[in-house]
Specification:
homodimer; Arc Repressor Mutant, subunit A; Dna Ligase, domain 1; DNA-binding
DNA sequence: ATTGATAATGAAAATCGTTTTCAATAAGGA
DNA sequence: TCCTTATTGAAAACGATTTTCATTATCAAT
């Protein structure tokens, strides 16, 4: 009941049942939290946020649930090179913008950007088609990340 | 002496000294091994290969050396999502082809490809210039990876 | 060549994110 | 409501990587 925010009647329930998964309090709590909160959260970030409202939910369940959600395609799992995985909702019913990440190699700050996506989509389409033909590799997903120095770290003299 | 392969008088010595690093047997052994052997090796892969010729070199030194080499820009460190980092030489004096990876999410096989790099380079150039202007983010590196199913795993019925 | 300051090394222990184990609990079809 | 079984949480296990620290090796100065 504290979960719903009125944008659809628990639209993910169907997905769960369809995959043979049960709908449980921890799963609802985690999905609800992800849909409301910041992006690129680590498992522990998520654990702490969920924990404030549901102290009974353990870190193990967070990991297990994130794994399921990633396999179902509801969330993305990222590695930004700092030793812990990061997660973000693929898109809510509202539809979040497709985006990529700029990763500062000095301070680990993450900047989302949504620019140049059109050009990129075109390139990717061509690439995916070509790779399918040449290697018979069926692409389901891609990752594009840029590494470098953010404004602050450039001034500080870099890493 | 068993290190040299005649393609340049230990060209990396200069880079080392320039960074204040000493040239040591383990470092030469590791670089030499990387220049001769397959790509996307894990730290343990490298350890075992180096170990056959230099049993005294420990795994700790492998990690430390790989870290230095990555910071110097001599090698790339990749994460393919299987829990261990992979490393490959950026390019030897012979010049290796710029390439990207297709990662099979079912069997973890890695396929290198060098196709469509021209189109990609053009897109990246534009993107980098635009991101620099908009976010004042100085890009030093990028990562592009495709995930999907290789030929074999498609036939097996996927993951 | 010898020396000396100190960077680099290896073994073992520590770290830390993530997984596994297992007994207890809860979801949801009957 | 009952019953099967998926799900859970706590603790232990795991595994890649890092740290510690005493020893060794590099190399600039002699």
């Amino acid at each position: 009941m504290p979960m719903s925010r009125g944008f659809g009647p628990m639209w993910w329930h169907g997905r769960f049942r369809g995959c043979g998964y049960r709908v449980t309090v921890p799963r609802e709590a985690i999905l609800d939290m992800l849909s409301k909160s910041d992006k690129h959260l680590s498992a522990e970030d998520i654990y702490m946020k969920v924990h404030t409202r549901y102290p009974a939910i353990g870190l193990t369940t967070i990991y297990r649930t994130l794994d399921i959600l990633a396999n179902m395609g509801l969330i993305f799992k990222f590695d930004f090179g700092d030793g812990r995985a990061r997660y973000e909702l693929v898109e809510g019913p509202k539809g979040k913008m497709h985006h990529h990440h700029l990763i500062c190699t000095s301070c680990n700050r993450i900047i989302d950007y949504t620019d140049f996506i059109d050009d990129e989509v075109e390139l990717l389409k061509r690439t995916e088609k070509g790779l399918l033909k040449k290697y018979n590799f069926k692409i389901t997903n891609h990752l594009i990340q840029f590494y470098g120095l953010c404004e602050k770290c450039q001034k500080k003299g870099g890493d």
